[in-house]
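hey so i finally got around to running both of the ones u sent me last week. sorry it took forever, my laptop kept dying halfway thru and i had to restart like 3 times lol. anyway pasting them below in the order u listed, first the sequence line then the structure token line for each. didnt double check formatting much so if smth looks off just lmk and ill redo it

first one:
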Amino acid sequence: MSESKAVSDINAPEALLQAYAGGQRAFSGLSLSQADLKGVDLKGADLSYADLSDADLSQANLRGADLSYASLRGTNLSQADLRGTMLIGTDLRQAQVAATNFHDADYDPDETHFPEGFDPIKAEMRRDRP
């Protein structure tokens, strides 16, 4: 396994994917707004507090990832796999979520912000607290 890169040194999708391929999973605080990450595999990654606003994550595999307090505002998540993700405090306002799989993703009803009209119960998500 290669040495972990400082998150502040990851400023392009290629650098993120290279670090992930090298075994790194800790990307908390990453800033890649407007990045083209279509179809990427970031399964199990810690992307908490990341800024991925207006990025293209369509068809991405984010299964089991921690996206707590991340900004996914305006992000394209169409056909992405978010099963089992942590979405506590995540900002998903204006995100595109057509055919996105949210099964068993954890959310906080008070802190997670969804696109207008989105129903986390219909999406088979789990409330983090009653």
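and the second one:
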Amino acid sequence: MTPRTTARRRSCGTRRTSTTAPLRAVSAAVALLAGVAPGLVAQRYWQAKLYPFVFYSTIDGFWGAFHYGRYSPVGALERPEEHLASLGFDAAASTQGSYRVIANAQAPAWWEGWRASLTFVAARANRLGYYGLGNATSYSSDSIAAAGPFYYRVSRTSLAGRATVQRRVVGPLRVLAGAALEHSDFRPLPGPSVFRRDLASGAVDPATVPFTDKVLRAGLVFDTRDNELDPHSGVILEALFASGTGYTRTTADGRAQLHPLERLVLAGRLAAEGTGGNPPLAAQQEMESSERPFVAVGGYRSLRGYHDGRFTGRGKLLGGVEARYVVFAAPSEAKLKIVELKLVAFYDAGRVFGPGETVRLTTTGLHRSGGVELALRFLRNSLTVVGYGRGSEGGQLLVGTSWSY
């Protein structure tokens, strides 16, 4: 039986611009793939995608974007990966001044038992949320009326490179090793803001703005999902440790999918993360994963219905459940449908922990949200999700190219 491995899930979250160097590195990665396995390359083929698209975000307004990719499909093989290997280049810019440029090379199934990824990201999140540090930070619409629209906002610019290698140990268990280099900077937006106040008071250490982070990562990944992009059954468990510049990070994440009825998939997630040392603001705003870090707590990948980066802290706790029901599928007799349209209902919960607090499983202090989504899967490597989530402070339009978890 072919061992199952997992590939990077695409995310809608903001990521990090010099495009020349990233593309050279990506080309070198492809040359390495071809050089190491010339016999295999001769038996495989590549397909290309190029398309522009436009979408709308509650936070950043309208986005204009395009995607170019080359990928080697798995063909008729029954594997959970989206493809054997891929190259991708994405660029997008919003009407609110945000942008992202991503160049990546992925090899989830090019070599049996191995998977590798190399990613370069340049991005600016020009309306990222910053409400202060800690789980009890307050939000007041009166503050926005008095101080201006950017009172709870900050502009974050990032430039990052990230490499990851995974090796299957036995069955669905893999060992992971990786490294990352990231430079991040924060800029106050016009007018009074919580970030400007915390930077002046020292609550946000001025020595960490800007900040260059050098990270080494290691961990274990246990993955039994039947399909990585759109799983119907299986679990993925991650235990990760990272050592950054002046701090450490320990992450545990579990996601499961059940298929009790032909048209229904139930999914759940429980994740926790703690840090040691003195993590900078940039690290406190994100949560680690085997794929790429994502903004937490608040946003599509962590707490839907809340603004990206709504809660910031040294420790994090996330949980969620959702039901995905197929309302249309074609062809109806095929095991793997060419097209599936799903209606999704979800419930998310999460919180952060401040200095001196122990990260623990608790229902105290949880922030909760719920909502609905429509998801369209086309073939085995394309998924688009749109929806609406609502928490105690209002709601957010949701757009993603992968499941939230």
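quick thing i noticed on the 2nd:
Confidence is low (pLDDT under 50) at residues 1-23, 29-42.
anyway thats it, ttyl
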